[in-house]
Amino acid sequence: MKWRTYPPDVLPLWVAEMDVPLAEPVLRALTDALALGDTGYPAGTAYAEALAEFAEKRWGWDGCAVERTAIVPDVMMGIVEMLRLVTGNGDPVVVNPPVYPPFFQFIEHLDRRVVEASLGPDLRIDFDTLEEAFRQAVAGGGRAAYLLCSPQNPTGTVHTAAELAAVAALADRYGVRVVVDEIHAPLTASGVDFVPYLSVPGAESGLSLMSASKGWNLAGLKAALAVAGTAAAADLARLPEEVSHGPSHLGIIAHTAALRDGTAWLDALRAGLDENRRLLTDLLAAHLPSVNCRPGEATYLAWLDCRGLGLGDDPADVFLERGRVALSAGSRFGTGGRGHVRLNLATSPEVVEEGVRRMAAALG
Ligand SMILES: Cc1ncc(COP(=O)(O)O)c(C=O)c1O
């Protein structure tokens, strides 16, 4: 999608796909499966076992119990199914804009109601705003949920253990169910620790969605995992059988290999992303000093505040038309997104440089 959506003269730095060679263990697992003719239906718990082992080694979390997991087609469909389990038609779902645009679309398509609780000016959860949103959400008497993005796309915010425990306590106080999208969890900057939501005290009734799809660039190989906290196991057990028909067998093979054998590849990738974050910061300081870029703590996305450029609500339009560089339009990320763009830096340093050159040229 990244390289096919725009004409060839446009440099695409928008959708969350990476310009990387496939991790060798993933390639091997897939080619072995194809050579064997292993292209039928999936079975077994290898994906969940690989995630449990990865979570223990990487995040020191031993609570990803295989019996409290379910394979779902992808993270967004998993979110939809989790929301279906814990809320009903017309019920509210709290989100923290600016946030991944499909959160709004999928919640609305499911006939749930979006309640916004914007991040604070520091791009972290604002607990007064969140409490007010919870109060509003439960006021109507329905079943409310909170869809948390952790780490946050587009800001790269990594929520701390203290913040996540505060989320759990607040959700418990208001009777709000927490569904957390942890797809970007493997992609932390060096020196930054990701904390799984279900690992914090009080989060037992939470439901998490995890996947190797962002970390290893496997979005075309559909598979993700839903993980239930101990007090949400009964909810996950109600997941209808037909949901398990969605994930691709080859997707499950690829994701399993990534989590089990792809950690060296992941760490090499993360080192490259660290360098690209530094490069982008330096290039913006040199060529577009009025663009405010806070280095993200995770993801390969940079959230650029372009309000100082005077390009209106959607600077992405100007960068595309005049600079021939495609960025994601901030206004699609909900409140707080206007005047911003999201730039994908999971590419070569040369492409990052060319992207900034084109952005600067758009202003000339
Ligand atoms: C926060 C977040 N959730 C979900 C997705 C999509 O995941 P999937 O393709 O597994 O539905 C993305 C993709 O960029 C994302 O950034």
Automatic annotation (TrEMBL):
Its EC number is 4.4.1.13. InterPro entries: Aminotransferase_I/II_large, Class-II_PLP-Dep_Aminotrans, PyrdxlP-dep_Trfase, PyrdxlP-dep_Trfase_major, PyrdxlP-dep_Trfase_small. Residues 46-358 form the Aminotransferase class I/classII large domain. It comes from the Bacteria. GO terms for molecular function: cysteine-S-conjugate beta-lyase activity. Keywords: Lyase, Pyridoxal phosphate. It is an enzyme of class 4 (lyase). Its cofactor is pyridoxal 5'-phosphate. Belongs to the class-II pyridoxal-phosphate-dependent aminotransferase family. MalY/PatB cystathionine beta-lyase subfamily. This is cysteine-S-conjugate beta-lyase. It comes from Streptomyces pseudovenezuelae.
